[in-house]
Amino acid sequence: MTAVLSNPVFREPESMGGAIREIEFRDALREAMSEEMRRDKRVFLLGEEVAQYDGAYKVSKGMLAEFGERRIIDTPISESGFAGMAIGAASMGLRPIVEFMSWSFSLVAADPILNNAPKMLYMSGGQLGCPIVFRGNDGAGGQLGSTHSWAVEGLFSNVPGVKIVIPSCAADAKGLMKTAIRDDDPVFFLESERLLSIKGHVPEGEYLIPFGHAAIRRTGTHCTICAWGRPVSFCMEAAEILAKEGIDCEVVDLRTIRPLDLPTVVASVRKTSCAVVVDQSWSFASPGGELAAQIHRHCFDDLDNFVHRVHADDVPTPYSTKLEQEYLPNVRKICEAVRAATYRA
Amino acid sequence: MHLIREFEVRCMQSYQEKKIGGFCHVYIGQEAIAVGCTQAVRHEDPIVTAYRDHGHALARGMTARACMAEMFGKIGGCAKAKGGSMHMFDKPNNLYGGHGIVGAQTPLGTGLAFATKYEDEVINGAKNKRVTLCFLGDGAVNQGAFYETMNLAGLFDIPVIFIVENNGYSMGTAIHRGTTMSHELTIKGRAHGLKEATIDGMDVVAVQQDMHELAEWCRENSRPAFVDMKCYRYKGHSMSDPRKYRTREEEERHESNDPIGKFERTLLDNGVVTDAVIKEIMASCREEVRDSIQFANESPEPPMSDLYTDVFVEPWGRYPGSSQPEFTGGATNVCAFRATNGKEGLV
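Above: the input entities. Below: the C-alpha cells describing the complete assembly.
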C-alpha cells in the first residue's frame, strides 16, 4: 500500500490521572488556549470581540483578565487585515490564534488565509514557516441564513499546506486545540456554534490528541459510517435506531480531514464491506466525495455496494427551521443511506 | 544602484532568451528607493515588498547569484526555484518576500512589525525597537486590504512604514484614472492617523536622509507612517507591456532625471569620487552580474523530489500518536463518543 496508508506509530498511552469532569465544548476550547498561553508566551489570541466582550460566543471568557490586552487582542471588523497581520507575525516566529467569529466571515480574508499562510513555507523554499491557528464557528448555526452558514471545509480542503481539524466533542476540542497550537503549520480549526454548549467528559490534566487519528466511536460489523464534527452526533443517534433494526454500524469520527486517517477507515470498511460518508458541506467536490473516492480505491474488492454519501443539500442554506433541518445531514437521511447501502431499504 | 540597473538589463535579455519564465517585472528607474531605504534603516529591520522585488533583494544583501538562479529556476536560487521572480525570500537578510498579489504584503508587513513590538513588550523586554519597511506600488493603494491594514497599524501603534513607490501607473492605468486624490496621496495615510512624508524617489540622497529621519521617529514613537515616494518606471509593467498608454516624450523626460546619473554628478561635483572610481564600480557590477548569469546557467535544476518538500514542516504534526491517551483512543483508536450534554448514557 502507498505511503498514505502507513499507520503512524503510537506510544504507550499515558495515564491521565485526575478526575473526569463534564464541561461544555467552549470551556474545553478555552482551557486548551489558556494552558498553551501559560506555557508559551509566543501564543496570543486576536479577533473580533475576543477581549472586552469575552468572545461573541464566550469561548475566550475571562482570558483578557488573565493574559492582558497585549495577548488577548480585540480587532476591528477587518478579517483580511487582521488575518494577514497574524500571518506576518507567524512568519516572524510568533504563534497566533485567530478567531473568526464565524468561518463564513473568513471568505473576505481568502487571500491571506489561502494565498499566504499555506504557501509561505513552500514559496520561500523552507525559510519561513507559518505556525498559526485560525478558529471559529463553521457550518449552519440556528437559522442564520445563507451567508452565515458556510461549511468551509468544502472549499478549503482543496488547498495543500493547511491542516483541517473538525472536532465533534469537548474532549477532542481540547486535545486537538492544544495540538493545533503547538503545530508548526497553519491549522484551520472548525468549531460548530451548535456544539459550543454541548457538555462532554473531559479529563483533568494535560493531554494532546495527535492529528490524523480517527476515533472509532462505536464498533459494528454491518456498515462503516464516516463523519466529522457536528454530524458525528447524528450518526451516533442513527446507529442506535439502526441497531434496533438489526443493522450494526461502526461509526468512525475522522477528527481531522487533513491529514486524513485512511488506515482506520480502510480497516473498518474491510471488516464491514459497506460504507456511508456523512459530510455537512455540499456534495460537489467535497471532502466527503474525496473520502468516498479513497474508499472506492482502497477497498474496491471489499465493498458490497458503492459508498453512499449524505451531504447538505445542493442549495443555499435556507432560513426556515423546517427547511434548514431537511437541508442538513440529519438522522433520517443517515438511516436511509445506511439502509440503502446495506440493501435493507 | 549600478548593480540593480545592470542586473535588470541582463534580466530582460535573459527573459527574451527564455532563460527566465513566468512574469518578470524590472525595477529600472526606481533603484534609488530600494537602495536609499535599506541604507536608512538597520539590517535587522524587516522588509517586505510586492512582485517588483529584485532591487529590494539585492539592496538588502541577497547575492546576484541567488537572485538570478531563482529566476532561472535553478537549485541555487534563494528559494530553491520554488518562488521565482515575484517571490524573493531571504530570511538571513530579513527580507520576507516578494509577494505576488497586489497589496497582500501590506497586512503581512504590519504583522512583521507587530511581531517585533510583541517580542519587545511580551517576550524578552529587550526593546530592540525594530521598524518594518513595507513597500507597495501606487496601484496597491486601492486595495481594501491596505485600508484595513492602515487602520490596524494606526490603532495598534505598529512601527511600520508603508512606502508607496508611486511610479504613476498601476500596470497601464495612470494614477489619476484609478485613484482619488492622487495629487495628494498622503491624505490616505492621514485618514488613519499615520505620519506622512512625500519624498523624491529619484534622488537617493533625499531618500536615505528623509527615510532615516522618518524611520527613527517611527522607531522611537512606535507609530506607523505613509510615504508617497515619487518615481518613474522606465520600462513596462512587465516584460509583455508595449507601453501604448504613455508617450515616448514622457518617458524621455523622466529618463533625463535618472537617479544614477544624478547621484554620480553629485559625487563628482563634490569631489567625493573620481571618474575612474565610478568606472571601476560599473565594471565590478557588470562582472558580478555576468558571474550571476554564469552561476544560474550552471546551477542544476531542482531534483524532482523537491516538488514534495516544504509543503508542511511536519505533515502529521509534531505528535504522531505520542500523546494519544487511552481516554481519547489509545493504540486502538476505539474511543466512546462522550458528548453527554448532561444526559448520562448517551455515549
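Note for the figure: Residues 1-15 of chain A have pLDDT under 50 and may be disordered.
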